[in-house]
Amino acid sequence: MNVYLIEVIIFLISVLLVTIILDMKKIHKLSIALPILFLIFIAVITGTYILERPTLEISNQPISLEIGQATSIQIPYTTYHMKDVTSSVTVTGDVDYNKIGSYHIQYEVPTITGIYAIEQIVNIVDKTPPTITLKGDKDFNLSYSATYEEPGYVVYDNSSEDLSSKVHIDQENINDTEYNIVYSVEDSAGNKTIERRKVHIIDDVAPTIKLNGSASMSILLNSTYTEKGATATDEMDGNLTDKIEISGKVNTSKVGEYSIIYKVSDQAGNKVQKTRKVTVYEEKVTESHQTPNTTPTQNSDGNNTGIIYLTFDDGPSSSITPKILDILKKKNVKATFFILNYSSSLEYLVKREYNEGHSIGIHGYSHTYSEIYTSDEAFMNNITKLQDKIKKTIGYAPTIIRFPGGSSNTVSKKYSTGIMTRLTKKVLDNGFKYYDWNVSAGDAGGASTSTQVYNNVTKNLKKNRSNVVLMHDFGGNKKTLNALSDIIDYGLKNGYTFKTITMDTPMVTHNVNN
Ligand code: ZN
User: In CATH, what class is 131-202?
Assistant: First the structure.
C-alpha cells in the first residue's frame, strides 16, 4: 500500500479522533487519558517511518563473477520509503576482477538517520576453460617416410595465465594409417581443454626394384637368354616380388640391344620400373684384332700411287649405313660393303649402296662361327643363300666375298679342322674371289674413339700397295662414322685413289691358319 495513503489515513483518523474526543469531552467530560494514548500512537507511527530501512534486491548468496569479464558491480534495485533510490546507492570495497578470490563490498544507501550499509560477498571465479588454437591443418596427410613436425598451437586462458608450457601432447592411435595428436591443457582453476589433430599416414614412396644379375648384360648371338628376374620391396607393403611385371624380349638370333622392363606398383599406386639392357653380340675373333702378324699377300695394281679400298663389314644398319653413304656421296668416294643378311626394311640400303656406285660383297647370311664353319657345305650355303637374296634385291649376284673373321681366322678350328684351307680353294673353284684386309680400323674391337679409328687407318696406309681398309657399318658404330670424313680427306690429300673391289681387283689375302 502506498505510504502517502497510509499517512493520509492516519492523519484523517487522527483528526477524526481529536474531533470525537473534543466533542465527547464537551459532552461527557472525559479524562485526559485518551488524547495521551492518541499521541503515543502518533509517535509510534512517526518513529516507524523514521527508522525504516531501505530494501535492496540482493540474495543472501555471494555474487560469482567470471574472472576477467566484469569491471564493476551491478548496483541492486533499491527502494526506500517505497521509492526507487537505486541511483543513490554507492559501493565501497575493492574487487580485483582479474584475480580469483573472495571480496567483501558494501552497498551504502543514504537514509534519514544516516548511511545504511549492507555487506555483500563477491567471488571472482574461473569457470572458463582455456582455448587451444591449432596452427596448420587440423586434418592432414603425412608421408610414412616423413617425420611428423608439430605445426604449433596457441593456448589462451581468460585468467591471463600463461599456459603455453603446460600443454601436453599425446598420440592417440585410431588405426594403422590414422592417429590423433591430442593437445590437453588445464588452467590453475582446474578447467580442462582438449583439442585433436588428425594425421593420415599415406604411402607416397614407390617400391624399389632390384634386378637379379647385371642391369646391363651382353650375350653371344644364338646363345640362350635366361631371365633372372628381380625382387621388389615396399616399405609399407613389404615384399612385392610376386607383383613384378616383366615385359620385353631378347631375340638371341639377332644382333642388337634389347630392353627388359620390370614394373611394379604398391597398394597406394606408386609405380617404379627398371630396365635391363641386353646386348646380343657376335663373336669377332680376328676382326677385332689389328691386322694379323702373318704377312698378307700383297698385290699391286701396277702403280705406286697408292690405292685405298674402303670396306665396310656387317651392315647394313639403319643407324649407321645411311650416314656413311651420305659421307661417301659428299666426298664422291666409292667403297665396298661386305654385307650380312638384312630385313626387308633395310633392302633400300642395299639398293642405295648399289645405285650409288659402291661395290656389294658377301660376308654371309649368318656371321655365327659355330654355324658357318661346321662344314664346307654349311659355309657355301651361307654364301649362296645371301647371294640369291641380293640378286632379288638389286638384280645382281655378287661374287666377291669376305670370310667372317677373315681367311686367317683360327676360331673355325673349334668347329672344323682345316676348313679354311679347304674353303679358300673352294670359293675360288666356285667362281668367287675373297678379300681380307691389310689395314684395320680396329672399330670392332680395340678402337674406342673416332681418333683411334682415324689413327689406325691413316698410320697403316702405304703408298706402294693396294690398301684394303677393314671397317664396319654395324648399328651404333659411331666412331667409324665420325672418323670417315677425315680418313677420306687424309687419303685425298696424300695422293691416294679410292676404288671399289670388283672381280678385277687382285685379291688381298691373309695366310691361312686353319
Ligand atoms: Zn664381320
Answer: mainly beta
